Amino acid sequence: MIRIMKADLFQRIRIPSFFVTVAMLLFLSVISTPRAKGVIQVLSIDPSVYRQADNPSWLPSSAALILGLILPIIGFLFIRNSLSLDRETGVADLFMTTRFHRFRYVFGKFTANCLLLVSLWLTVVIGTFFMSILRFPGQWLSMYQFLSPFLVLLPGILLLSALALLADTLPFLRGTFGTIAMIFFILILYVLEAMRNKQEGLNLFNLSGTNYILDAIKQAGIVAGKPINGL
Fold this sequence. Notes:
By secondary structure, the protein is mostly helical. It has helices spanning 2-13, 16-31, 58-79, 82-89, 91-97, 102-135, 143-151, 154-169, 175-194, 210-223. It has one domain. The mean pLDDT is 77.
């Protein structure tokens, strides 16, 4: 299983699209930096009440919000062909016709998907850290304060890895049609997240993790005695 995971992981991090994706996410770390004034307002919280982007805590929250919306789509497109590549090279048929346990094969692929998505997640975390140093020199957040907005995205990575593997396993979800169908499904999950306040049971569909971040921001406003009305 470990060999399958390592082989799949190393195969896909060597392709040009991986480096292009990493570069895009590093650029995301830059443009998602909140600014008090500017053409692009990534995160605006009650401007009439709160001073905007005046401390480093804005950076991880803003970057995690944007990453939570973008990573499910970009990540799915990047990891969705894990089994298809093995079918093209004949590796999948070899594993399915030998005594090698199918569960170990599939779980190795799932683990590789998770690690690939975590590497993309880590790219934004590192990029945001350096942006916080450049933007707010000498002002430091604790490790928990900095990482907590990003950590809520990790459960969605597990779900996304499973969805990509499922789409590559079912015959009718392979190819271009399957890609479009799964992207549409992810967009539906976004809608279900937005409806969560009306139906709490929809928490299960919090793929992007953004609801947890928004709730934390609103709770911080309540604790500060200034409830947030506009976000």
